[in-house]
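User: For a benchmark we're assembling, each entry needs the component sequences followed by a predicted structure for the full assembly. Here are entry 17's components. Please fill in the structure.
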Amino acid sequence: MTSEVRQRRPVRREGVWLRATAEENAVFDPATGGLHLLNETARAIWELCDGATTTAEMVEAICSVTGLPRDVVTEDVERTLTEFERLGILRWEE
Amino acid sequence: MTERIRVLLADEQSLFREAVRAVLQSEADLDVIAEARDGVQAVAEAKRVQPDVAVLDANLPNCDGIRATKLITESLESCRVLVLGVDGDIRQMVEALEAGARGFLTKEIPLAELIEAARSLFRGETLIPPGMLGPLLAHLINRHREEEEARRRVSRLTKREREVLALLASGGDNDTIAQRLVISPETARTHVQNVLGKLGVHSRLEAAAFVLQTGMMADLVEANA
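Assistant: Structure for entry 17:
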């Protein structure tokens, strides 16, 4: 991850909301009617997409909690954010 | 024959311990090898039997579960601690993980999940309750930002001002600071005013709280050594 990417701040697109139950987590996009299931880590990343948190901060925090190697966490975070972007539920603050 | 996971259980309530023990013992790969009713006993038993997994209530009497976790993980590197705490209590979860716990669950979970939790911890996984990972990460990120901001503010201080801040945070008044640094009380007072201004705080008490809350004391002492 380049330093430029690390300092980018993802932000949830307006109107998209999280539906969390004991059984599953999903984000619902009323604009498209899309319902996307998330695992616990993806949900946590989604919740951190507040326009203030950088991807570098996300990676750092996940590493400190899980003890996983930085390159593994970086890849996971990038993949998750790329998927959110592909689904049209995320935009980026520079 | 598969390796059995050796478990220590610590909870004040004997009924809870007995229920959990009965459930865990019914699993072929789990073996409850010791129990404790308070934190002191949990630490002693952990050192004695060296379990693979220790399940501790966060609110144990005589040394709470967080403190007991720290003592256990410091002396037994291979023991993975699971703390059972209060649902939604992010602060308690952070304290448990920072004390060395590898998992934090609430007592609201079904016993079947506790069985899986013991296995997960034994495999080296980290356990966080559903829905609490996001708030936990947000808490850690915010704290990291606060620490960075604190370091930024302290970096504005001169070496002498850092010495003054360390003494101030230890409860020293102008006379004490003057004596310790071999300067006049007036000079000490000037340093204190400069420290307050650079930190952006309004009183000595606020400056002391800033140092304690941001964990800067160790940095100040180290810088002054």
